[in-house]
């Protein structure tokens, strides 16, 4: 991030602008939203600028920008649409100590003006560091549509009510109150009875909330999906947005944790492969401890919480302490890996059933019904299998599997850095070792990437 976004208090501060054409107009429309003292220097100013000067919204000086014109100015805009003139103005303004913006000149500017969604006092600023104005415009249009025009009014009325709301204890109770106001009681009252209705609604809402019992603690065991934030369920997003505490595994992608409520406490209880981890008892204790204080806890697990997620142990602990819980399923790694390969998990004529296997369990490398797995056309998703590739290969071959049975390892399925490692049983351990994956890997036994599968002569496709 080269440009750091801040909100500058321009009340009563001096802002100067050189230029009188379209570029000057565009900037002035934004600057005039503020309470700054604006002075425009232009020999020829557009009629709107002259009108604004007449109305007292700005001061118009009908001459070229001169040394000293930016003295005591917080900001100076060089907006004359003439590169040489803008460079001259910028140098003078810099010498006067102002922060300078040169229109359409990123490198000459000490600050840039973002695209703005204005719901004063709620202001959204969108910047792309000059890289993608089209993107900024699209985001602005989306936000304009998403944020009701009444939002600013609700915020202004709400601001005057903040001290009254201090009657509610800090934290969850106060947040619940504001949540109700902005997203329910406020807009409803405004629609029905206008501004005075909103003030009455605030009074009523406050007495409602003062009378309410403390909200009960709750733990949601939520699937975060395989990594792509867009593969989160709407429910998962909503819970993350409301969470007081998020207890997450290492595999949960940072982009997903970004979606947690800003004030939420994030606790990483992750473990890496066979490495050390937070003990299961400690994870249980952590959930219980937070839920007992009334917190809304999200226990965030990668993929689906019910697939190799030790879900039942956590539910047992919660039940033992009488804590309410719910489960929100997620997209498991096998789904994402199959999609990455362009393959389905079951296919008419190939496999009517598929298996989820783990490469290792509490006793080390896991044993399975190898004999059945070696039958042609079988499909299995092997979680935590990369380290056990040699073991799996040995067991499968020992039970008579064809050495050219396709096995595809998918690393970081659904993520931007996803990698497909195409292999056969005969070369699996060597292929994985050569690929040297660093992210999570799932082995798709019996599946080749779609394009490669089309050329597979034997085995897979003869059953298709
Ligand atoms: N509950 C998770 C699985 C947890 S076990 C789920 O439903 O997906 C952890 C294993 O899941 C990893 O060792 C790896 O085999 C697999 N895994 C999880 N996310 C993955 C991803 N994005 N790509 C490939 N494998 C993944």
Give a structural overview.
This protein is α/β, with parallel strands linked by helices. It has four domains: 14-113, NAD(P)-binding Rossmann-like Domain (Rossmann fold); 150-211; 218-331, Tetrapyrrole methylase, N-terminal domain (Cobalt-precorrin-4 Transmethylase, domain 1, 3-Layer(aba) Sandwich); 334-463, Methyltransferase, Cobalt-precorrin-4 Transmethylase, Domain 2 (2-Layer Sandwich). 37% of the residues lie in helices and 19% in strands. It contains 16 helices and 19 strands. The chain has helices at residues 22-31, 47-54, 83-95, 133-146, 151-159, 162-165, 172-211, 234-242, 254-257, 280-292, 311-320, 333-341, 370-373, 389-398, 428-435, 450-454; strands at residues 14-18, 37-41, 59-61, 73-78, 99-102, 115-119, 122-126, 218-223, 245-248, 265-268, 296-301, 324-328, 355-358, 360-361, 364-365, 380-383, 406-411, 419-424, 441-445. The chain has a five-stranded parallel sheet with strand order 3-2-1-4-5, with helices on both faces. The protein has a five-stranded parallel sheet with strand order 10-9-11-8-12, with helices on both faces. Strands 13-16-19-17-18 form a five-stranded mixed sheet, with helices on both faces. Helix 1 links the parallel strand 1 (14-18) and strand 2 (37-41). Helix 5 packs across helix 7. The protein is extended. The model is unreliable at 458-464 (pLDDT under 50). It binds S-adenosyl-L-homocysteine. The site of S-adenosyl-L-homocysteine has 24 residues, from helix 12 and strand 19.
């Amino acid at each position: 991030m080269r440009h750091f976004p801040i909100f500058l208090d321009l009340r009563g501060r001096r802002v100067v602008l050189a230029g009188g054409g379209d570029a000057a107009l565009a900037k002035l429309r934004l600057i005039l939203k503020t309470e700054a003292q604006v002075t425009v220097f232009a020999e020829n100013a557009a009629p709107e600028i002259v009108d604004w000067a007449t109305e007292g919204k700005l001061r118009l000086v009908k001459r070229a920008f001169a040394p000293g014109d930016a003295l005591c100015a917080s900001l100076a805009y060089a907006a004359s649409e003439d590169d040489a003139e803008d460079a001259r103005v910028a140098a003078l303004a810099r010498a006067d100590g102002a922060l300078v913006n040169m229109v359409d000149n990123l490198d000459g500017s000490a600050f840039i003006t973002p695209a703005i969604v204005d719901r004063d006092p709620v202001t959204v600023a969108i910047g792309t560091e000059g890289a993608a104005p089209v993107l900024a415009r699209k985001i602005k249009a989306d936000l304009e549509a998403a944020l009701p025009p009444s939002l600013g009014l609700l915020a202004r009325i709400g601001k005057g009510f903040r001290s009254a709301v201090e009657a509610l204890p800090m934290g969850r109770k106060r947040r619940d109150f504001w949540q109700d106001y902005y997203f329910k009681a406020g807009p409803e009252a405004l629609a029905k009875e206008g501004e005075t209705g909103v003030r009455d609604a605030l009074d009523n809402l406050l007495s409602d909330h003062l009378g309410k019992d403390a909200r009960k603690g709750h733990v949601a065991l939520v699937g975060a999906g395989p990594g792509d934030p867009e593969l989160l369920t709407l429910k998962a997003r909503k819970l993350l947005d409301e969470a007081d505490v998020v207890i997450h595994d290492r595999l949960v992608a940072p982009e997903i944790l970004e979606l947690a409520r800003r004030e939420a406490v994030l606790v990483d209880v992750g473990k890496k492969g066979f490495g050390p981890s937070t003990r299961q008892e400690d994870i249980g204790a952590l959930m219980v401890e937070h839920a007992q204080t009334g917190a809304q806890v999200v226990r965030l697990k990668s993929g689906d919480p019910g697939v190799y997620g030790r879900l039942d142990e956590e539910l047992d602990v919660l039940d033992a302490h009488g804590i309410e819980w719910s489960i929100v399923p997620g997209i498991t790694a096998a789904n994402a890996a199959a999609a990455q390969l362009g393959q389905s998990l079951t296919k008419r004529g190939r496999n009517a059933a598929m298996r989820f296997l783990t490469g290792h369990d509490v006793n080390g490398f896991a044993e399975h019904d190898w004999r059945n797995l070696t039958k042609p056309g079988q499909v299995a998703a092997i979680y935590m299998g990369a380290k056990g590739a040699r073991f799996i290969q040995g067991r499968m071959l020992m039970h008579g599997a064809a050495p050219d049975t396709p096995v595809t390892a998918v690393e970081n399925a659904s993520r931007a850095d996803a990698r497909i490692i195409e292999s056969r049983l005969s070369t699996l351990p060597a292929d994985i070792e050569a690929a040297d994956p660093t992210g999570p890997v799932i082995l798709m036994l019996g599946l080749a990437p779609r394009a490669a599968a089309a050329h597979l002569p034997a085995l897979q496709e003869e059953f298709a």
